[in-house]
Amino acid sequence: MFITPAYAQAAGPAGTSGFLIQILPFVAIFAIMYFLIIRPQRQRMKAHQELISNLRRGDTIVTTGGLIGKVSKVVDDGEIQVELGEGVKVRVVRSMVSEVRSKTEPAKDNG
After folding, report:
1. What is the mean pLDDT of residues 1-29?
2. Where are the alpha helices (DSSP H) in 1-111?
3. Closest listed residue to residue 91, CA positions, set 103, 68, 75
């Protein structure tokens, strides 16, 4: 009747372009994740690291626990002493500082 035989078309090497098409969505998702999540998080970490490394006496800070106080002494690279109220001083790990409310001016040399 009117039935014609169907012939398979000759295709190029099997698998090379198919593999690229299958891997392309994963590459696109990784690129989107990098620019929306990983890169901004690294920038925030870098800014926080700079913030805590520049702490000095007299700065008003907020800790991650919500305490507000004034830095009374920089103990070492890992700790600071914070005055929370009159006569109330506590030692705080530097990485627990979440915000610096007011910065003090650096001491000027008269020389």
Report:
1. 74
2. 16-33, 39-53
3. 75
